[in-house]
Amino acid sequence: MNEIAINVDSLTVFYGKYCVIRDITFSINKNEFVTIVGPNGGGKTTLLKAILGLVEPTNGKVEVFSKPPKELDFHEIGYVPQIKNLDRTFPAKVIELVATGLTGKWKFVITKEIRNLALEALAKTGIENLAERPLTKLSGGELQRVYLARSIIRKPKLLILDEPATGIDSVAEVDFSKILEEQQKMFNTTILMVTHDWEYAFHHSNKVILLNKRLIAFDSPKKAFTEENLKKTFGHIGHEHTMQFIIDKNA
Amino acid sequence: MLEIFQHHFVIKAILAGVVVGFLGGFYGNFVVQRKMSFLGDGLAHVTFGGIALGLLLQFEPFFVALPFTLLVAIALTYLKERTALEIDTTIGIFFAISVALGILFITLNKRYISDAFSYLFGSILLVSDKDLLISYFFGLATILLAIIFWKRWTYATFDYELAMVDRINVRFDDYLLSVLIALSIVISVKLVGIFLVASFLVIPPAAAKLLSKTFAQMTILSIILGIISSILGIIISILWDLPTGSTIILLQSIIFLFAFAVKQLR
């Protein structure tokens, strides 16, 4: 029997009078790679925030590893936020941000031990050479890798990524996927990722959540990505949006 | 020049300048990086309302201004958290109300107008032993709190959400920081005056930010610039018979311009 990593039961979230998520129920098993796909304003980020313990459910409940999210130790969850939220004026070096992944605080001085672990994490994401670079001098793709290094340094049981592919070119994206798959294999990490990239979701995830305020589908990519489900999720799929997946045998 | 140090009041003024420079230099890092530079000015004017009320009630103005300013600092944090209003807007509201109340209180008892004006411009050369003691006690408390909270405030300053995900009680930390900033302003107002106190929270950290690669460097440099500008400002103002507060701030401005030039040349 598979052990459950995330259990979402009848989750409803209101922001004031506005319902963002209505009556969502699903369970994600440990070591699964699940992607969340849906339109803007469909509740994807709110769902992540509820799982992270940043948003209180109006109704229903969320459990992560059988506990309310707020009761988890911070080391258990790795979080890669959307890079657009970064304060580009903050004076900091890459290594300092990666170190927060271990310490959960912004250290005044980084010890040699933490520095070595941070360099190791940066090496895994292929940007060890950027350790001393100011955050303000990074491209979008480099910054995503820094955040990924920050999240994998703590060897989390659950890795949550909010649109990580934004700002990454296709070559880098393949590399990014390899890092995630390696985490999944080596540490039995459960991965939950919001993405706009249907193709990526189709090829890389074990299951897909189609979300538009309500749960439209929670199933394997082949079963979730039906024309009917996509119409329900995105309203319509016009000519330009019709999906043509190329099955990659090596994926 | 050295003979000025034989005067007791000069030594006391320098000691006061060191603590004001330290407080502004430390808390200012968070004020500047959190884009709340108007906070210093706003709370200084709130202090004016409290001082005027103290003068009207014939209580020690400091002990009326203190709770008055702390309450407003807590209210600002509460409104930022609970409403869609930007903090600059709420500061503007309290700023205006406090100045209006201050003027009203002074008008009700005109005997204290000159006392009220001494708070506007500060009197660092007339600082009392009691004021010095209070400011050093708070300076020491700040050092102790910085050891615990710098790493948490800095993390939340960088990214509020990441700090929350890592289980830092950011709400408590925000209220604590607001209260401490308010305290440092009330204490500094007595020394450098309402008009000039905000510059201690803005100019040294802004100059330090231009020259720093990390927030830790910015913190240290900002404190050093705050303290040095205070000491030099006091000495220059005494030697050349200039207004002390203005001299300190103009010196800070020169340091800022120098930092800007260095940044451009890099």
Task: Give a summary of the structure in a few sentences.
The complex is a heterodimer of chains A (251) and B (266). Chain A has eight helices and nine strands.
Describe this structure as you would to a colleague.
The complex is a heterodimer of chains A (251) and B (266). Chain A is of the alpha/beta class. Chain A contains eight helices and nine strands. Chain A has helices spanning 44-52, 94-103, 112-124, 140-152, 170-187, 198-204, 221-224, 227-234; strands at 4-15, 18-29, 33-37, 59-64, 77-80, 158-162, 190-194, 207-212, 214-219. Chain A has a six-stranded mixed sheet, with helices on both faces. In chain A, strands 2-1-4 form a three-stranded antiparallel sheet, with helices on one face. The longest helix of chain B has 30 residues, at 129-158. Chain B contains eleven helices and no strands. Chain B has 266 residues and is mainly alpha-helical. Chain A binds chain B through residues 52-54, 70, 73-74, 77, 79, 81, 85-87, 89-93, 96-97, 100, 103-109, 134, and chain B through 33, 150-152, 154-155, 157-159, 161-162, 164-168, 209, 212-218.
Average of per-residue pLDDT values of chain A: 88
Question: What structural class do helix, strand and pairing data of chain B support?
Answer: mainly alpha
What is the beta-strand fraction of chain A? Answer: 15-25%
* Rg of chain A (CA only): 18 Å
Q: Give the helix tally of chain B.
A: 11
The oligomeric status of these chains comes to heterodimer
SSE order of chain B, one letter for each helix or strand: HHHHHHHHHHH
